[in-house]
Design brief:
heterodimer, A: about 300 residues, alpha/beta, Rossmann fold, seven-stranded mixed beta sheet, 9 strands, globular, B: about 70 residues, alpha+beta, Alpha-Beta Plaits, two-stranded antiparallel ribbon, 2 helices, oxidoreductase (chain B), pyruvate synthase activity (chain B)
């Protein structure tokens, strides 16, 4: 699919909504080397979402959608939570699954797509909150990694059930007191990136969304590895400013504070040997440039 | 009365490649880059007034965005 498929019939052009016309004219479908640098100068694939003012999750959403390598051939699978409020405003094919079911749905979808379109590249990207990925859907998440299903799992980790008022989640840090978890979290944060590594993921990243270029690299490489090698996992810290008692303009600082050395969201990347070899073949030019600089 | 962000054109350094406010705005398609004037512009009906752009612009000592009440 390319931009041709969303083109408007000339006779209906003037009655189509302005936003749709802009999407057809200035959207970045089919563009090579998409990235966060396109935002602000071309139409984004997300429009007027209903998340709170200053929500870091919406920053993450903007970056993820701006960095998908081929949005026209991508199907996103979402789950219940704040992310499911955004998907109706996203100009990428998406499926809303039952809570926790997202990796099972994505497995079936990926298999059906590779059967239906054997010659085309179709990306499947799972995007869900920490409750869906780690608590309720841990079974489905892990089983899809064990089976080596070729799709990317992105977890928006806000460390609690923010949408329902602040209940304790498996990814909550130890000792944290939330509105509906007054006794404090009793056990450590579930180390899902480590579990992902030992469960067969070929590309695992844990980070915040305070640096768009890093998010771009991670999303792009995770999807490329998922196309050819096997499952990939990205955990992004997107704090819920309401539930951790921050003002709306403090979300960015909260992410920066959490990613320092020895903090719980210090940047961590794991690439398996197989995936590294593949990525080197995909990005040979960049490698050569870097080597040239070093030898000088 | 709503608070929305407004860019002071004379102080904006988007022509030198600064994209801080555009990058960190949580709303999509809200702060855009005006290719003719080479400054950032705020699409007011979409702005929720979260002040993140003011924070990042002030932290970089450009001070080119302020909140106005409409």
């Amino acid at each position: 699919m390319s931009k041709e498929k969303i083109k408007i019939n000339q006779e209906f052009y003037d009655i189509m909504p302005l936003e749709y016309r802009e999407l057809v004219e200035e959207g970045t479908y089919g563009k090579e080397n998409r990235g966060w640098k396109d935002v602000g100068e071309s139409k984004e694939l997300i429009e007027e979402h209903s998340l709170c003012a200053g929500c870091p999750e919406s920053i993450a959403f903007r970056y993820v959608l701006a960095c998908l390598p081929a949005p026209e051939d991508t199907i996103m699978v979402g789950s219940t939570g704040c992310t499911s409020l955004v998907f109706p405003h996203v100009a990428v094919h998406n499926i809303h699954s039952l809570f926790g079911n997202q990796n099972a749905v994505a497995s079936g979808l990926k298999r059906a797509l590779s059967f239906r379109f054997p010659d085309k590249i179709k990306d499947v990207v799972v995007l869900a909150g920490d409750g869906a990925t780690v608590d309720i859907g841990l079974d489905m998440t892990l089983q899809s990694w064990f089976r080596q299903e070729k799709f990317t799992t992105i977890c928006f980790d806000n460390e609690l059930y923010a949408n329902t008022g602040g209940q304790s989640s498996g990814l909550m840090q130890k000792g944290f007191v939330a509105k509906m978890a007054p006794a404090g979290k009793k056990f450590d944060k579930v180390p899902l990136p480590e579990i992902a590594k030992s469960s067969g993921c070929h590309y695992v990243v844990k980070m915040t969304v305070s640096k768009p270029n890093r998010v771009e690299k991670a999303i792009r490489e995770a999807i490329l590895v998922a196309r050819e090698i096997g499952p990939t996992y990205i955990q992004l810290y997107t704090p819920c400013i309401l539930e951790i008692g921050k003002q709306m303009m403090e979300g960015l600082q909260e992410m920066r504070d959490s990613e320092g050395p020895n903090k719980r969201f210090e940047f961590e990347e794991y690439v398996s040997d197989e995936a590294r070899a593949y990525l080197d073949t995909v990005n040979p030019k960049k490698k050569k440039r870097k080597k040239a600089i070093v030898t000088k | 009365m709503y608070a929305v962000a407004e860019v002071i054109d004379d102080l904006c350094v988007a022509n030198k490649g600064c994209r801080l406010c555009i990058m960190y705005c949580p709303e999509a398609n809200t702060i855009l880059f005006d290719k003719e004037k080479k400054v950032a512009v705020v699409v007011e009906p979409r702005c929720k007034g979260c002040e993140l752009c003011v924070v990042v612009c002030s932290a970089a000592k450009h001070n080119a965005i302020e909140l106005v009440h409409r």
